[in-house]
Design brief:
The complex is a heterodimer of chains A (206) and B (221). Chain A has 2 domains: 134 residues, 3-Layer(aba) Sandwich (Rossmann fold), CATH 3.40.50.300; 61 residues. Chain A is 33% helix and 29% strand. Chain A is built from 6 helices and 9 strands, in the order E-E-E-H-E-E-H-E-H-H-H-E-H-E-E. In chain A, strand 1 and strand 2 form a beta hairpin. Chain B has 221 residues and is mostly helical. Chain B has one domain. Chain B starts with a helix and ends with a helix. The mean pLDDT of chain B is 87. The chains are: A alpha/beta (206), B mainly alpha (221). Chains A and B meet through helix 2, strand 6 and helix 3 of A and helix 1, helix 4 and helix 5 of B.
Chain lengths: 206, 221
C-alpha cells in the first residue's frame, strides 16, 4: 500500500440544508503535520471533516490525496488509510468494551494485540469487560481513541477529540498524537481548546 | 478473519444483545398463530383451510418486527461512520447486516413456522414446505425490510415509511410462497411456486444492497 503523504483541499465549498457553510476553503496537510480547525459553532468544521471522509459531497472544489508513489484514489484512502473520530464515539452500547475494541481492530486492519495495548495506554484495562453503556463519556472517548491509535491508518480526522477528556487524558492523547506525527501521520482536528501539540491553525467562517 | 465474517459476528452478537431480538419475533409469530383460532369462528375445517395463509402472513409480519432498528442504532451511535471507512464497500456492509438479520430472525422463524401452521390446523404433510418457504422467503423479508429501513433512515417518521415502501414489494413472495405451500399440501405441482419464490429472493439479495447503501449514504450526508 502506498502511504499517504499529502492531502490538499482546494477551493472547497460545502452546503448544508441549502445554506452555504463555507466556500473557497483551501488546506494543505503533509506527513508529520497537524492542522487545527477553529471557528465558531456551526462554521462547518465537522462538515469539512466529513467531506474529507467522503460522507458529504462538497458542492465545489477538489480534494487530492498523494502517496509517496503518486496520487491515490480518494476511495482507496478512505478504505484503508483514514480514520474519523466524530463527536459520537461509534460504540455500541450493548457490547463490552473489549468486543468493540477487537471488532474495530479487525475492521481497521489492526491486530487485537495492538488494540489491547492501546486500551492499556489509555488506562482502560479494568473496564474492558463492562458493557459500553456503563462507561462514562470520558472512558468512551478513551476507548474510541485507543481504537484510533491501534488502527494502522495515516490520516486522522478528529472532531473535538479532547472535549470529554480529563487533564491526564488530554496530556496522554497529546503524546499519542505526537507519536503519530513522528511516524509520518497526518492529523486534521476540529478544536475549541488548543491542541497539546504543535499544529497549524486554520480558521473557518466567522 | 475476513472483514465480512467479522461483520457477521458483530451483527449476530448485536441482534442477540438487543433484548433477545430473535425471540421477540418468534414469540410474536407463535402468539398470533396460537391465538388466531381462539378468535376465529369455531369451525376447525374452515380454519384448517386458512391455516397456511394465516401462518405465512404472520411470519412475514414477525420478520419485519425488529427491522426498523437495523441501521438506526448504528447511525445514532456513530458506528456507521466506522463501518463506512472499512475495507468492505458499503453495499457489502448493508448486505452483511441483512444476512445477519436473516440468520438471527429468519432462521428461528423458519423453525417455528411449521409449529405455527400446525397450531392453526394445517395438515402435518405441509410442514416441510412451510419450513422451506419460510427459510427462502425470510431472505426476501430481511433484504426488502432492510431496504425500507435504509430509505426511512433520513426521515423522521421512519416506521410508517418502512411499511409504505416495503409492503407492496412483499406481495409477490407472499403469493409465491403461499401457493407453493398450498399445492404441496394438496399433493399437486409445487415446484413452480417455490422456484418463483427463490428467484424473487435471489433478486432481492442481489439488487437491494445498492438501494440500501444509497439510503444509508444519504442519511449520513
Amino acid at each position: 500500500m502506498d502511504p499517504l503523504i499529502r492531502l490538499s483541499v482546494e477551493n472547497l465549498a460545502v452546503e448544508r440544508g441549502g445554506r452555504e457553510l463555507f466556500r473557497a476553503l483551501s488546506l494543505l496537510c503533509e506527513a508529520g503535520e497537524a492542522v487545527a480547525l477553529t471557528g465558531p459553532n456551526g462554521a462547518g468544521k465537522t462538515s469539512l471533516l466529513r467531506a474529507i471522509a467522503g460522507f458529504i459531497r462538497p458542492s465545489a472544489g477538489a480534494m487530492r490525496f498523494e502517496g509517496a508513489a503518486g496520487p491515490i484514489e480518494a476511495d482507496e484512502v478512505r478504505r484503508a488509510q483514514c480514520h474519523l473520530i466524530g463527536h459520537l464515539d461509534g460504540l455500541s452500547d450493548s457490547r463490552t468494551a473489549r468486543a468493540e475494541l477487537i471488532f474495530a481492530a479487525g475492521w481497521t486492519g489492526a491486530s487485537p494485540a495492538a488494540a489491547l495495548a492501546g486500551a492499556g495506554r489509555f488506562g482502560l484495562e479494568r473496564v474492558l469487560d463492562l458493557d459500553v453503556r456503563r462507561l462514562s463519556a470520558g472512558q468512551r472517548r478513551r476507548l474510541a481513541l485507543a481504537r484510533l491509535m491501534a488502527a494502522p491508518r495515516a490520516l486522522w480526522l478528529l472532531d473535538e477529540p479532547l472535549s470529554p477528556l480529563d487533564t491526564a487524558g488530554r496530556a496522554l492523547f497529546g503524546e499519542v498524537m505526537a507519536d503519530h506525527l513522528a511516524r509520518g501521520g497526518l492529523i486534521i482536528a476540529a478544536v475549541h481548546d488548543p491542541l497539546p501539540i504543535r499544529a497549524r491553525a486554520l480558521a473557518i467562517g466567522g | 478473519m475476513s472483514a465480512f465474517r467479522l461483520l457477521m459476528r458483530r451483527e449476530i452478537a448485536l441482534a442477540w444483545g438487543r433484548g433477545g431480538g430473535p425471540l421477540l419475533a418468534v414469540g410474536f409469530f407463535l402468539a398470533v398463530t396460537t391465538s388466531f383460532p381462539l378468535a376465529a369462528a369455531p369451525a376447525p375445517a374452515r380454519l384448517a383451510s386458512e391455516a397456511m395463509g394465516v401462518s405465512w402472513i404472520a411470519l412475514m409480519l414477525a420478520s419485519l418486527l425488529s427491522l426498523d432498528r437495523l441501521f438506526d442504532r448504528d447511525l445514532g451511535s456513530g458506528a456507521l461512520d466506522l463501518l463506512s471507512l472499512g475495507a468492505l464497500p458499503l453495499e457489502a456492509v448493508v448486505a452483511g447486516k441483512c444476512l445477519a438479520q436473516w440468520v438471527t430472525s429468519g432462521v428461528p422463524l423458519a423453525l417455528a413456522a411449521p409449529i405455527g401452521a400446525l397450531a392453526l390446523g394445517a395438515p402435518p404433510v405441509a410442514a416441510p414446505m412451510v419450513f422451506a418457504a419460510a427459510l427462502i422467503g425470510g431472505l426476501t423479508f430481511a433484504f426488502l425490510g432492510g431496504t425500507g429501513a435504509a430509505l426511512a433512515l433520513a426521515s423522521r417518521r421512519g416506521g410508517m415509511l418502512i411499511a409504505l415502501i416495503v409492503l407492496p414489494l412483499l406481495i409477490p413472495p407472499v403469493i409465491f410462497g403461499g401457493a407453493a405451500i398450498e399445492r404441496f399440501a394438496a399433493g399437486s405441482a409445487w415446484a413452480g411456486g417455490l422456484a418463483l419464490l427463490s428467484g424473487y429472493s435471489l433478486a432481492a439479495v442481489a439488487l437491494t444492497p445498492f438501494a440500501m447503501a444509497a439510503g444509508v449514504r444519504n442519511a449520513g450526508a
